[in-house]
Sequence to fold (254 residues):
Amino acid sequence: MRIKEQDDFSEVMEKSLRAKVDYNTLEQYVNRLFSEKIATFSKQELQIFSDCLKNSVKEEKEFYKRLILETNGNHVQNDIFNLFENKPELLEVESFNLYSFIDALKVNSVTEELDAKLLKIRNAEQILAPYSYLFRTLQSEPSWIVDKIEKATIFESFPKFLNYHFDNEVLDSFNSCLKKENYDKALAVINRNKTISENRKNVPWIKEENGNVITCYSDGARKIKEFDKELHFENNYFLPTYISLYKQIMLSND
Fold:
C-alpha cells in the first residue's frame, strides 16, 4: 500500500489541511516543533492540531478509498464496497456475527464470484471453529484417556462431513476427519498443533503418549461442552476491520 509513497500523497494532504485550518499558522506551529528544543503551546493554539483530524475532505476520502477500500481489477473486495455503497443498512449491526453477516451479503450479492467466496469462508469456519473449541477443551485438563475423549459432550455439537471441496489440504483433512471416531478428531487437532509448533521450533502444546493425551501448555484453555455451529465462530476474516475502515473513510462526516 505504502500510502506516504503515493505520488499524490503530499498534494492531497496539503489540500486537506488548507481546507480545514489556517495553513500558514499550522506551518508556523510545526516549524516550532522541529526548531525549538521545548515547544510550548496554549490550549487555544493546540486546537489547530485537533481540527486537522476532525473531518475528511473529498480529496482525502477518494485517496483512502482508492488505496484501502478498493483494489485493482475484478475483485470481490470491490463487490463488497459497492454493496456498502448501495445497501448502507448492511453496516447497521450492533454486534458482528460472521454467519448472519455472510447471509446478508449473499442476499444482496450480484456476482457469482462473491457468492463463491462467501460460501468458502462459511464452510472454512464451520470446520475450523469446532476443532479450535476441541483444542481449547483438551487444554482444560492436564490429561485425558481415550475413553474420556470419546465421551466428551463437545462432539455432539460437531458438524457432519461437508460435501465441499476445499482447496486447502489442512481444511480438507479436517473435513474428512469428521467421518471418523471422536478420538481421531482429537488426534487430528493435536497433530496439527505439533506441526505448527515444530515449524516455529517450539514444543507442542498437547501431546499423545501411549493412548494418553497430555497437556503441556494450557494458555487459552476453556472447557466447552457445547456450541452452536450456526452461530459461534472463532475467526472474522477481517470483515469487521473492513467495515470499520469503510465507516471511518466514507462516513466520517455523517
In short: The longest strand covers residues 206-209.
